[in-house]
Amino acid sequence: MATETRVLVTDDLDGTEGARTYRFTWQDTGYEIDLNDEHRDEFLRALEPYITAARKTSAPRRQRQTDPRD
């Protein structure tokens, strides 16, 4: 007998099914939100003028941790 597990992602704003997870960063803090297509479009429209006016930066480099035994 086989077991099948399914994950149902629901919109964080209204609970509708079929949402997708989106990640973004604001002031060095990472966020995730699950949005349906309508809410994703609203989110992007709200951010669009700011993204258009903003400058792109590169992500900060993470320092490699060394093993103290080296």
Topology:
Blueprint: E1 20-26, E2 29-35, H1 37-53
Antiparallel strand pairs: 1-2
Can you characterise this structure?
- The model has no long low-confidence stretch (mean pLDDT 91).
- This protein has a domain at 20-52.
- It is an alpha+beta fold.
- It is built from one helix and two strands; from the N terminus they run ββα.
Number of helices: 1
Overall average pLDDT: 91
Total number of beta strands: 2
The helix/strand class is alpha+beta
At a glance:
This protein has 70 residues and is α+β, with helices and mostly antiparallel strands.
Features:
two-stranded antiparallel ribbon; alpha+beta; about 20% strand; 1 helix; about 70 residues
